[in-house]
Each structure stands twice: as structure tokens, then as C-alpha cells.
Amino acid sequence: MTLGPLLLLLSALLHASWNALAKASKDKESFLFLTILLSGVLTALAMIVSGQKFIFPGPQIFGIAVLSGLFEGLYFLTLSKALRASGLGKSYAIMRGGAMVLVWAYSSLLLREQASALQITGAVLVLAGILAINFKDLRHGGLASLKTDMWSFLSALFIAGYHLSYHEALSEQTDPMPLFLVAMVVSLPFLLFGIRSAPLQRVSATLRSHPLRVLATGTFATASFLIFLYGLRVSAPGFAISLRNSSIFFAVIFSFFLKESLSRMQLVGACTIGLGALLLSL
After folding, report:
1. pLDDT tens by residue, 250-279
2. What residue spans define the domains of the chain?
3. What is the dihedral of CA 232, 101, 71, 200, to 10 degrees?
4. How far is CA 36 from CA 10, 18, 40, 41, 78, in A?
5. Among 65, 183, 262, 271, which residue's Cβ finds the most Cβ atoms within 10 Å?
6. Angle, nearest 10°, between helix axes 211-234 and 199-209?
7. Are 18 and 221 in contact (CB under 8 A)?
8. How far apart (Å, rounded) are the C-alpha atoms in residues 46 and 168?
9. Which of 270, 261, 250 lies closest to 152 in space, CA to CA?
10. DSSP track, 149-214
11. Is the pLDDT of residue 31 over 80?
12. 216: exposed, middle or buried (Cβ count in 10 Å: 0-12, 13-18, 19+)
């Protein structure tokens, strides 16, 4: 296996790992704020050590980087709420699988990219998997029961947004590190808004109680995003996103360590979403 695929698989593992650590935290809003703050600091330090310059191909590309940050900020904000409302395995599968369907639909309908039979099959599988995950709730509560996963569905929208923005910036030969740094800085106010109630006390309490977990999560989050962006530069976009979404399977595995009780139907649904995401990226 060449370096590109290995990097993307590592990125998928790290992404599912930091989401699992965030799920295990008590105050998810302050925990995510510290995680992203640390990600920005680590990225800035990496740029200084490596001699990477803070430059963009043009003002338009810098604007796309800011747009990526807006989507990232909304993603982190809805992620914290999704992890509060639902288990990791269920919410993660909806977020990542739903984002893949949205990216595919945008490319097919607005960019007029021709969809293959495999991609159409993948989209159907993702939607079927989401229905399977929510089958029990839908059977007892109807469509109103989907309110529980509202934040996961919204998060999927914002994930699709930052994926498309990152891809647009990278296609103009933008370096991943300044691109990611701008996105992290822009996303911080959204996370600060999430902890607007006694922010200093909550952040201090989280930092005192879980310093090593915050350090690990920030490191994993930074590595997962940067590795993905570099992997995206050396691999075909569809192949890169396909391997990246193997994180759905890792998230299901981590959900067992978190002692989440996924039903057989939900487990089948999560795996179906993962398979559909892979087909969508081909």
C-alpha cells in the first residue's frame, strides 16, 4: 500500500478516536473549545518549525478558507449537541454518511457530474442505513422521533460544506496548514458561543479535570484533519474521501468501548451507511 492510502486510513482512525474522546467528556462544549483551540496552536507551531509561510494563492482562496472555518464552526457546534443527544455509533454514522450523500448530490445536480451506477447504489444504501438506524424510533414515534437526531443531520450539512470548501481551496494549490489554521481560528467563536454560560469556569474545570484527554483529543483532531488534507493532495478526491469515511466503521467499534447499546438493526444500519459511503466515493 502506498503512502497516500495509509495516511487516509490513519486519518480515519484518528478522526473517530477524537470524536469518541469528545463523546466521553462531561462538558462537551468546553471540551471541544479546548480541542480546537489546541488544534490551532499546534498547527501554528508546526508551521513555525517547518518554515511554512502563511500565504494563499489569492484573496478569493483566502475567502474560501474563511468559509471552510464557518462550516467547521457550525459543525463543531452541532457535533457537541449531537453527541449529547445520541450515541457515538448512531450519530457519527448519520453525520458522515449524510455528508457523503449531500456532497454527491451537489456534484451531480449543480456541477453536473455524471453519476455512476455504483454511486447511485451508494446513495440508496446510505439512506437505507439511516432509516435502519432510526427504524425503532420511526416505528414508535413516526417522523417526529427524528428530532432526537436533528443535530446529527444538521452536522452532516456542515461537514459537506467544509469538505467542498477544502477541496476547492486545495484544487488551487493551497497549502493545507495555513488553510486549516484559518479554519480553526474562524471556528473558535462558534465554540465560544456554545459555552456562553460561565465560559471561564467551565473551560477551567474541564482543563483541570481532564488535561491529558484534552491534549490527546487536540493532537488527534489536528493530525486527522492535516493528514486528510495532505492525503487529498496525493490521492484522487473520490478515493481519498472513500478511505476517510472508513472512520464510520471505527466509530462503531469505539461505541462498544463507550458501552453504548447499539441494537442489531442499528449496527446493520451503521455498516450499511459505511458501505454506501465507500460506493459513493468511487
Report:
1. 888 888 888 877 778 878 887 887 787 777
2. 3-280
3. -100
4. 19, 11, 6, 9, 14
5. 183
6. 90
7. yes
8. 23
9. 270
10. GHHHHHHHHHHHHHHHHHHHHHTTT--HHHHHHHHHHHHHHHHHHHT-SSHHHHHHHHHHH-HHHH
11. yes
12. middle
Spatial contact of 214 and 48, defined as CB atoms under 8 Å apart: no
Measured CA to CA, the distance from residue 3 to residue 231 in angstroms comes to: 8
Backbone angles phi, psi at 265, to 5 degrees: -65, -40
Its pTM surpasses 0.85: yes
Reference 279, options 111, 152, 104; nearest CA is 104
How many other C-beta atoms lie within 10 A of the C-beta of residue 257?
Answer: 10
Here the cell at position 263 is 441494537
Residue with cell 476547492: 168
Residue 3 parent element (H or E): helix 3-24
CB atoms within 10 A of CB 143: 9
Mean pLDDT of the chain: 85
Nearest-10 crossing angle of helices 211-234, 3-24: 150
Q: Where are the alpha helices (DSSP H) in 51-87?
A: 59-85
List C-alpha distances in Å: 162 to 55, 155, 165, 218: 20, 11, 5, 19
Q: Are 279 and 44 in contact (CB under 8 A)?
A: no
Nearest Cα neighbor of 101 from 240, 236, 241 is 241
Helix axes 211-234, 176-194, angle to 10 degrees: 140
